Amino acid sequence: MEPKIVYKYRDWEKPSHQRILINNQLYLSSPKDFNDPFDCRINHNFTLLSTKEEDDYITTLAIRQFPEAEKRGIDYGPVIKDFENRFKNKSEFQKYADTLLFTHQDKNYAIFSCSKRWNSILMWSHYSANHTGFCVGFWYHKMFDSHLFGKGALVKYDTNFPKIKPRPAQNDKQSIIDSFIETHTKSKEWQYEKEYRFMTTSPIELSAKNRIVHVPDDYIAEVILGMLISDNDKKKITEICHTKNIPLFQAKKVDFKFKITRELIKN
User: Fold this and answer.
1) This prediction's pTM
2) Which run of H or of E encompasses 149?
């Protein structure tokens, strides 16, 4: 089921996090900056290929090099032989293929991670400076339909590492499915985050500047202040939200329970 609002936990002490409210600025991260070393690191497992599939894979890759080899007057035979030799050492070829895949993702993928929940004790601790920060809620459908990102989707959590068989084809149905698995599968240990991820890809390497997008005020559904936010930070965020007519809430403990509730801060 699609969420109505998706949330981003932030730390007001970081100027880059302040811009989400002051300038409506969102930063789409590179996978290399994620705190989970397995995130967007689902590699294609070459041990899953049969001997025939290995031959087909080598041939297909070599054929792709043929136009360039022909242009340069290079003999086509050695091109195929080169790929065959690389395959002899599976572990080294696996490292080579992983490097190509992960480098491409780091340079060309841009991801804005949110959550379906605003009341996670752990996420307030991890991403909002131990409950001293704030949480911004965005209208899901406005974000989804904005064309500022690729389409959004929920992250899938699994106890087992996905098995992706290397495929020389790049645009067939299975390759598209595999690409989604690569970027939207995480360990079940992260399940508490209930992550919803907006992602876009670029044909060229993205600079830090090109990872920034801006959204209108009405994309922001609400803002929630952390339970332990300072009076000074609370005052600054309150002024911004009231100026932009954004509903503002104060997070609070639920008496005698390990739960968080919230109260509306009226103008």
Assistant:
1) 0.88
2) none
What pLDDT is stored for residue 76 in this prediction? 61
Cα–Cα distance between 246 and 248 in angstroms, integer? 6
Q: Is the dihedral of CA 150, 155, 161, 164 positive or negative?
A: negative
pLDDT of amino acid 141: 92
Please report the pLDDT score of residue 32 as a whole number.
Answer: 96
Beta strand pairing status for 156-158 and 185-187?
Answer: parallel
Listed by start position, the domains of the chain span: 5-29+112-264, 46-105
Can you give the C-alpha Rg of the chain in angstroms? 23
In this structure, what DSSP letter does residue 109 have?
A: E
The confidence score (pLDDT) of residue 233 equals 98
- Are 110 and 206 a contacting pair, CB within 8 Å? yes
Contact between residue 166 and residue 32 where contact means Cβ atoms under 8 Å apart: no
Tokens of 44: 């294609």
Count of residues making up the chain:
267
**198-221 exposure pattern, b = at least 16 Cβ within 10 A, e = fewer:** bbbeeeeebeeeebebebeeebbb
pLDDT of 51 reads 85
CA–CA distances in Å: residue 250 to residues 126, 147, 150, 253, 264 = 18, 32, 32, 10, 6
- List Cβ neighbours of 7 (8 Å cut-off, separation of 6 or more): 114, 115, 116, 117, 118, 135, 136, 137, 138, 224
Residues of the chain falling short of pLDDT 70? 64-77, 79, 169-171
